[in-house]
Design goal:
about 40% helix, three-stranded parallel beta sheet, globular, alpha/beta, five-stranded parallel beta sheet, 14 helices
Length: about 350
């Protein structure tokens, strides 16, 4: 048995200073060691090998001086013949085709000091603007060689305008852009909003990127055994007490707690945990709750924290209406990632 009882996520109310938000704009722990040569393209999907080639060349083109930013200015200088097209690359594809692996590999391969490269999810980028303010965010990121945005999502028109304006300012300052999403830039927001000004903003964002399609199946489940069925409450509780650094919460209570914690703090919410144990997992009651759960699933996956659960299987978390709606790709991504973490957690029961 563990020396102390399990912790509770519901008892945590982290405070995250703006400095930490900036410092953490690097590839998450899961992607610390990934590189282009550790990406395993599916031989039946030539677009995957093509993506490696294109991104390797893109990274090589970002070389130059580091701290002064002179190399960046030379790369985008009007005196040079190159960048007449989009100054960014957009990786489009379904969940589980390795887009984040490739994006993190691009970050690692770009010949610049870590302080001149930024990597974060779309949500983390909007949170950074909220913490620093728009102008300070432009100043903070404007001297960077590269900004990588993972899981580019547009949840409301306000975020669309905000990020469109931010990226436009950064491009003006010579920052190269790279992003991943499950939807082509011109199709973002489809099925969510129909306002003409929203669609105009989408087109403006699309112009910053060269779309690069990546086809394939979800590698997290390719050739692997079926995900384990949920365990019983007693098994989950016993495993939580036997696992040093584990947390234990009932799922309905956790969902209520997430509503009181800003999503920018979900990463800090999991600090120091070795496993997350949940009892009484059931379908989420509404879309707002579901979207918060998606963010938590992303942070747990980034940090490689196994999730042991009782109740319904993770593929039953979201209603058919949700899975057929405008946020369906977010929900499928969450199911995919939570299923992978459930598979990682299976050995905890036998400890």
């Amino acid at each position: 048995m563990a020396d102390a009882g399990p912790q509770a996520l519901c008892a945590r109310e982290p405070r995250v200073p703006a400095e930490r938000l900036v410092a953490e704009m690097v590839p998450p722990p899961r992607f610390d060691s990934v590189r282009f040569d550790t990406y395993n393209p599916d031989p039946t999907q030539p677009s995957q090998s093509e993506a490696v080639t294109v991104l390797s060349g893109f990274a090589a083109g970002l070389g130059g001086a580091h701290a002064s930013g002179a190399g960046r200015k030379r790369w985008f200088s009007k005196k040079q013949a190159a960048p007449t097209g989009p100054r960014g690359v957009y990786l489009d594809g379904g969940y589980g085709v390795g887009k984040t692996h490739l994006l993190a590999s691009l970050w690692h391969a770009t010949p610049a000091e870590p302080a001149l490269k930024a990597f974060g999810t779309f949500v983390e980028l909007t949170n950074l603007v909220g913490a620093l303010g728009f102008q300070q965010t432009v100043q903070t990121l404007g001297g960077h060689r590269l900004l990588c945005i993972d899981e580019f999502e547009l949840d409301d028109p306000g975020d669309t305008v905000l990020v469109s304006s931010l990226l436009s300012r950064l491009v003006e300052q010579g920052v190269a852009l790279a992003a991943t999403s499950n939807t082509l830039p011109g199709k973002l927001g489809e099925g969510r909003f129909a306002a003409a000004d929203f669609l105009r903003e989408i087109q403006g964002l699309s112009a910053h990127f060269r779309p690069l399609r990546i086809d394939g199946q979800d590698y997290r489940h390719r050739g692997l055994p079926e995900a384990p069925s949920p365990f019983g409450d007693e098994q989950v509780t016993k495993a939580a007490y036997a696992t040093e650094g584990a947390s234990l919460d009932d799922f309905p209570g956790l969902l209520e707690h997430l509503a009181r914690v800003h999503p920018s703090r979900y990463g800090a919410l999991t600090d120091g945990l070795t496993a997350v144990c949940l009892t009484d997992v059931g379908p989420v009651p509404d879309q707002s709750t579901a979207l918060r759960l998606v963010v938590l699933a992303d942070r747990l996956y980034d940090r490689e924290i196994p999730v042991l659960a009782s109740g319904v299987p993770f593929d039953k978390l979201f209603s058919e209406e949700m899975l057929n709606g405008g946020y369906r790709k977010k929900y499928f991504r969450a199911i995919s990632r939570l299923t992978a973490l459930a598979r990682d957690a299976k050995p905890l029961v036998s400890q």
